[in-house]
């Protein structure tokens, strides 16, 4: 359990390999669905690659001779337009403060792995191993090396480090994505700590109060910005948790396409949790008619699943532009106020 | 002769983490087995119609829940809208059986004053080795806790899957016919819908008729 793995060589980027007719696995190791539309994907990629290349050049220039990532308008704009894959780990680590933590606490992660662990937590984490990304070849028990081991280590260490949280189902998906991107257990651990300890409200603690609060906040925002949807939810007595809990708990992992999720996370690490509302509001608003015409509880649920698929969310670059326009203004003051109100409402219920 | 009615039952599936709740529901509604089914992380649901007798259609709202304790607060409100519960344990994990009693108590306390009817499911009964709970123990516990039945189920081998849902639904239906389940306007657990037409057996949720 103590040993960590060298994950450098285990997986070669296949993104740039020539577009052979049947590229069944994406650059992150996820197998494409059987009904994956290669034609529209090729079409999208031919446009998207130009964007990516341009962004990549700009980033390389920006980062020349520096390891620091400043917080300013220019970098914010850069982040919103997407962090290139090769810089992602660095930017996430720097922007979230995870790098500082790592530098200040050398060896800490490894000491956590050597600690005596709670067998109960170990058991719960173990039960989630085979159901974390079964569609990703890096997480197959048969792959060599297998990311399941790294995933187990990160989650166990985190549970020991943050005893208020321990382990909450859903964290496996977060840690899994971090490992896919950073290919490094220790960095994944500190990024996880930045997310759970700092960026997100208490989503994963035993009361899940922060999660309940943010679901309610989204409800309030929908009431203001997309009233027709709010009304249909109200009419059929659908609680927000039923349709959006996964969105928040998994930070859109396994909900939205991989590339789109990574773009959202770029902003999440740089700007904070407000971005999660922007994403939700954009999808809901864009599909206002579809959702508000639902006739029953089950139709509402189905439609909330439907809206997380399709071209609108697959074209990550356009989608990310939309999230900053479509929902309109969303000030931090508003979010803070709504969070306070919703938290009070829940705790006094 | 009683006029045939259309009913809607809320059914919730509960039990410890990874006893196989989502797999069971998936097998029942989709007919396939998927070993790596994810936790619903909160609550999820499916709809299924059950055809009873000649003219009775029962619409089942099937609530799938996350087993991990901290998700309980999210799932609770939907327990209130259920009349039946499939309470599951894993026959190869003794501790999941030991927790059955407290699961039931917690649910009953929570839904009070509304009723809740249970079937107990010993899951993964296909496992030839590693069984830690005997069938007789399951039978005895179900009896002791006043449950409608105990079934040994394998989602993998498709054993007793359909029977589980039918036993619970039939049991609730019979109890209702015997007048043992009162309906209330503010309770969605068991809803009496419109009479069922022979020509169109599937009726949409419709205005409530008064019992005649």
> What is the ordering of alpha helices and beta strands of chain B?
EHEEHEHHEHEHE
Report the end-to-end length of chain A measured between terminal Cα atoms. Answer: 44 Å
C-alpha Rg of chain A, in Å? 20 Å
The biggest chain-chain interface is: A-B, 30 and 27 residues
Low confidence ranges of chain A? 8-21
Task: Based on the coordinates given, report the CATH architecture of the largest domain in chain A.
Answer: Orthogonal Bundle
CATH fold topology of the largest domain in chain A:
Helicase, Ruva Protein, domain 3
Please count the beta strands of chain A (DSSP E, at least 2 residues each).
0
List the domain count of chain B as a whole number. 1
Radius of gyration of chain B: 17 Å
For the residues shown, what is the average pLDDT of chain B? 87
The total domain count of chain A is 2
Q: Assess the beta-strand content of chain A as a share of residues.
A: under 5%
Give the helix proportion of chain A (percent range): 55-70%
How much helicity do the residues of chain B have? 25-40%
Per the CATH scheme, the topology name of chain B is Rossmann fold
């Amino acid at each position: 359990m103590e040993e960590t793995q060298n994950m450098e060589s285990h997986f070669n980027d296949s993104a740039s390999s020539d577009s052979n007719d049947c590229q069944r696995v994406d650059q992150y190791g996820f197998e494409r669905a059987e009904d994956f539309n290669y034609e529209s994907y090729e079409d999208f990629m031919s446009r998207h690659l130009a964007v990516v290349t341009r962004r990549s050049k700009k980033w390389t220039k920006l980062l020349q001779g520096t390891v620091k990532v400043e917080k300013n308008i220019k970098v914010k704009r850069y982040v919103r337009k997407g962090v290139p894959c090769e810089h992602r780990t660095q930017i996430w680590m720097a922007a979230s403060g995870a790098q500082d933590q790592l530098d200040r606490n050398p060896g800490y992660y490894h000491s956590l792995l050597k600690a005596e662990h709670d067998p109960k937590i170990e058991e719960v984490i173990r039960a989630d191993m085979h159901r974390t990304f079964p569609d990703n070849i890096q997480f197959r028990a048969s792959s060599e090396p297998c990311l399941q081991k790294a995933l187990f280590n990160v989650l166990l260490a985190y549970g020991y480090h943050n005893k208020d949280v321990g382990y909450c189902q859903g964290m496996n998906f977060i840690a899994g994505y971090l490992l896919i991107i950073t290919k490094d257990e220790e960095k994944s651990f500190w990024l996880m700590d930045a997310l759970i300890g700092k960026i997100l409200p208490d989503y994963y603690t035993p009361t899940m109060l922060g999660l309940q609060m943010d679901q309610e906040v989204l409800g309030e925002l929908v009431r203001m910005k997309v009233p027709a949807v709010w009304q249909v939810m109200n009419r059929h007595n659908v609680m927000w948790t039923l349709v959006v809990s996964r969105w928040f708990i998994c930070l859109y992992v396994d909900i939205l396409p991989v590339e789109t999720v990574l773009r959202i996370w770029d902003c999440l690490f740089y700007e904070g949790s407000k971005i999660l509302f922007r994403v939700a509001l954009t999808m809901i608003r864009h599909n206002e008619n579809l959702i508000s015409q639902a006739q029953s509880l089950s139709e509402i649920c189905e439609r909330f699943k439907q809206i997380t698929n399709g071209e609108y969310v697959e074209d990550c670059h356009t989608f990310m532009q939309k999230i900053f326009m479509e929902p309109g203004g969303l000030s931090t003051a508003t979010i803070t106020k709504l969070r306070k109100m919703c938290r009070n409402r829940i705790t006094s219920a | 002769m009683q006029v045939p009615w259309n009913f809607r039952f809320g059914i919730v599936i509960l039990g410890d983490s990874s006893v196989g709740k989502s797999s069971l529901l998936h097998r029942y509604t989709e007919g396939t087995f998927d070993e790596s089914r994810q936790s619903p992380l909160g609550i999820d649901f499916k709809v299924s119609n059950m055809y009873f007798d000649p003219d009775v259609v029962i619409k089942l709202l099937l609530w799938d829940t996350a087993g991990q304790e901290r998700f309980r607060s999210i799932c609770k409100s939907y327990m209130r809208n259920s009349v039946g519960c499939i309470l599951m344990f894993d026959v190869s994990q003794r501790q999941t059986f030991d927790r059955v009693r407290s699961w039931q108590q917690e649910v009953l306390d929570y839904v009070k004053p509304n009723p809740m009817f249970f079937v107990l499911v010993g899951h993964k009964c296909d496992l030839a080795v590693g069984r830690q709970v005997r069938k007789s123990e399951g039978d005895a516990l179900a009896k002791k806790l006043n449950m409608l039945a105990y079934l040994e189920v394998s989602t993998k081998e498709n054993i007793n899957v359909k029977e589980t849902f039918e036993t619970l639904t039939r049991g609730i239906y019979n109890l209702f016919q015997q007048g043992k389940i009162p309906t209330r306007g503010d309770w969605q657990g068991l809803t009496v819908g419109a009479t069922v037409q022979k020509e169109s057996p599937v009726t949409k949720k419709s205005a409530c008729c008064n019992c005649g």
